[in-house]
Amino acid sequence: MSKALKDKYTLTHLRQARESGRKVAMLTCYDYTMARLMHDAGVPCILVGDSAAGVILGHPNTLPVPLSFMIEITAAVRRGAPLAFLVGDMPFGSYQASIAQGVKNVCQMVQQSGCDCVKLEVTSHHLPLVESLAAAGVAVMGHIGLRPQAVGLMGGYKTQGKSADEACEIVALALQLQNAGAAALLLEAVPPEIAKSVVEMTNVPVIGCGAGPDCHGCVIVTHDGLGLTPTRPRFVPKLADLAEPMKGAFAKYVEDVTSASYPAGEHNYSMPAAELAEFRKKLVIRFGP
Ligand code: KIV
Fold first, then answer.
1. What is the residue-level pLDDT of the chain in tens, covering all 289 positions?
2. How far, in Å, CA of 202 to CA of 210, rounded?
């Protein structure tokens, strides 16, 4: 039986999952073809993350990826997975300059990509922006804990909230975001005890990314789970090992073309015999024997 979603998955379903305790799966996706597969597999929530900067574009961090690119790929994923709860990621530089800049760019993301929610990596500095977006009717997912866009300031990609003070700050920020109108939270790279406190002390759905078992849902970078990236972070489950079969397929293609075993008869387009005979005659008339 098909596992594909039959109805649109919305924020209401995410909130219901929070209440019922049913865990929610979210995967990253960056293109139409993969989105179609996720649709067929019944993936309810998809994040078009700025991790595309590394996974798709080969950058060493998420900072260089522009808003126009994020909108383009989010719209492609929307076309492939029309029923999923789709989260568009606001890239570095698209909302840091001012509230006006953030609101304008978020509206552009929502209008042009068809996403259901936008994710922003936030500190307390961004609370007025979250408030303005919520007032404008936008579902905002506040990304806290490890914020890859702040890699420079954080001095690398490190687990966050390892000291009691830092942990309290994360919980306080989660509450502030909720009060500012954030519709959901994404908690990245924190010890499970902190995630549990955030879950217990807030009333919005919390998606964990390396945050233990107590969040209402989990997200991973799909390519990590599929074994397509060079290293798999420890919190990512091994869903498949697609790198070797894909490399094998590419090598086989090279071999088949090089050895002229491809293309074979079954790969050729055909032409009516009479037209072919006529074509041969015309060739001789026009270009000589
Ligand atoms: O950009 C992204 O894919 C993310 C996830 C790693 C949470 O933010």
1. 899 999 999 999 999 999 999 999 999 999 999 999 999 999 999 999 999 999 999 999 999 999 999 999 999 999 999 999 999 999 999 999 999 999 999 999 999 999 999 999 999 999 999 999 999 999 999 999 999 999 999 999 999 999 999 999 999 999 999 999 999 999 999 999 999 999 999 999 999 999 999 999 999 999 999 999 999 999 999 999 999 999 999 999 999 999 999 999 999 999 999 999 999 999 999 999 9
2. 19
Question: Which of 24, 34, 51 to probe ligand 1 with, by most ligand atoms within 8 A of CB?
Answer: 51
Q: Which residues contact 23 (CB under 8 A, 6 or more apart)?
A: 17, 216, 217, 218
Q: Is the CB of 51 under 6 A from ligand 1?
A: yes
Task: Give strand pairing partners of 208.
Answer: 187, 218
Cis peptide bond prior to 263, omega within 30° of 0: yes
Nearest CA to ligand 1 atom 1: 49
Q: Is the CB of 49 under 6 A from ligand 1?
A: yes
Q: Which structural domains are found in the chain, ordered by start?
A: 11-220 (3.20.20.60)
Which atom of ligand 1 approaches the CA of 47 most closely? 3
Its pTM surpasses 0.90: yes
